[in-house]
Amino acid sequence: MRVRKLIRAPLPFVYRWCTDFREDDDRITNSIYHYRAEIVRLGPRRLLRLITLPGEQFADDTQVELIRLAPPDRWRLDLVSAELDETGSYQLRRVGRTRTLLEMRFEKRWRLRRAPDQRAYRKLFDRVWDLYVLSIEPQYGRAPKSPSRRSASG
User: Fold this and answer.
1) 26 to 78, 116, 139, 141: CA distances (angstroms)
2) How sure is the predictor about 99, in pLDDT bands with cuts at 50, 70 and 90?
3) What is the CA 94 to chain-centroid distance, rounded?
4) On the CB side of 152, how many CA atoms lie within 13 Å of its CA?
5) Mean pLDDT value across residues 90-94
6) Domains in the chain, start-ordered, CATH in brackets?
7) How far apart (Å, rounded) are the C-alpha atoms in residues 154 and 28?
8) Nearest by Cα to 4 from 91, 99, 87, 104
9) How many Å apart are CA 152 and CA 10, to the nearest integer?
10) Buried b / exposed e across 23-56, counting CB within 10 Å, b at 16+?
11) Mean model confidence pLDDT for the chain
């Protein structure tokens, strides 16, 4: 799956925002994609995220994500769970002085007998990233012009 999002903010700001992983990041999506996260920093460019998704029927599903940062414009995701193995690459490209193109590519291997409907999955993924973009852009407008972390509101 390939997804592209144009963000009205410069590349350095977008990179900082996107790679500032927090345990309460799911609040940005207004609960359309709710999860609990624990973050373990393995060094300045590597971290583990333990994601617990509420179970649909009985048990929660836990995902282990290894995230490798490659500043100033890339990062990679390797995810393992009982239901899915996934790799993802994220690449930022400068589009003029104040816009950034985020290109995401994912390969998934479902462990389930019947994989989820890919159109519905893509629609959810697009909605989640549209909400992230809606959070990034106004924060750039009110951010100090020196490098800083994402504000407490997002």
Assistant:
1) 19, 21, 17, 22
2) very high
3) 19
4) 0
5) 98
6) 2-141 (3.30.530.20)
7) 6
8) 104
9) 20
10) eebbebbeeeeebebeeeeeeeeebebebebeee
11) 86
Which H helix or E strand runs over 101? Answer: strand 99-110
- With tokens 């583990």, the residue in question is 48
In angstroms, the CA 79 to CA 64 distance is 6
Structure token pair of residue 113 = 């007998």
Report CA 70 to chain centroid distance, whole Å.
15
Please say whether the dihedral angle defined by the alpha carbons of residues 94, 29, 43 and 61, taken in this order, is positive or negative.
negative
- What tens digit of pLDDT does each residue of 27-71 get? 787 766 667 789 999 999 999 999 887 766 546 778 999 999 999
